[in-house]
Amino acid sequence: MKLKNAVIDGSSTVYPISSAIGEEFSKIYPDVKVSVAYAGTGGGFKKFYANQIDICDASRPIKQEEIDKCKENGINYIEFTVAYDGISVVVNKQNTWCKSLTVEQLKAMWEPDSKIKTWKDIDPSWPDNQIKFYAPGTDSGTFEYFTEEITKKKGAIRTDITPSEDDNVLVTGVENDKNAIAFFGYAYYEENKARLSAVNVDAGEGPVEPTFETIKSKKYKPLSRPLFIYVNSKKMEEPHIKEFIKYYLENAKTLVPEVGYVPLEESAYKEQLSKIK
Asked: Domain 4-84+227-274, what fold?
């Protein structure tokens, strides 16, 4: 039996979805090896337009320069929306003071020239302890989305952060430091609720906790967003890739919540499926 390959790379946020779907798909089609990695959305697109992968997981839409690179290299693609995410701001379980933050406070904390060094700098009643900042790496779509929405400039962030493309590194960093704070995709918070606390975000209508319901209803503002996969159109001509994408969209409704994200409506998945034709 000759193995066929489906190679996926990109967003660490979308990784759990593609990974779970790849695992289930391989049980039905054992002759297809689904490889899933997470170089970050930007890293995934670099591989995608260099024709090194079949599918790119993305936690943001493709950028103009990436579209241009695809054109340059003769790569046509199809974009599929697969789920919703709510970027979660998390703190250590022993942090009993920071229950919620306004968008303005988040901006003051994370912007490039931030004067915030300690918790006391945000609220005089909070401890005079230095904050340790953890964040996704610069190739991450989560990093780009967060900076665009919070610091109001894509990629603009304070310099004294500990970055990692691996969200599990961020989870461990916050878990091991009482004064740490981080942000990443909702699934990683959902999976680690026993180890971390989520900070409610107040966009002007009162503090909102990231939950399935608030992400789906877009009440969790401004950090709710869609998640995507991009597929090389030429690769879609290969029956196993086409079958995999079909399986992905037909089973996302069930598997997306299992890994901690919010699925689209049934009708929206049908709409995505129609793009295959």
From this structure: D-Maltodextrin-Binding Protein; domain 2 (3.40.190)
Domain map (residue ranges) of the chain = 4-84+227-274, 88-222
Query: CA-CA distance, 133 to 219, in Å (whole number)?
Result: 26
Q: Are the folds of 4-84+227-274 and 88-222 the same?
A: yes
Both tokens assigned to 177: 């430091």
Exposed, middle or buried: residue 251 (CB in 10 Å: 0-12, 13-18, 19+)?
middle
pLDDT at residue 180 greater than cutoff 90: yes
pLDDT at 1 over 90: no
Q: Is 176 exposed, middle or buried (0-12, 13-18, 19+ CB in 10 A)?
A: exposed
d(CA 259, CA 254): 10
Question: Per residue in 89-145, pLDDT tens?
Answer: 999 999 999 999 999 999 999 999 999 999 999 999 999 999 999 999 998 999 999
pTM of the model: 0.88
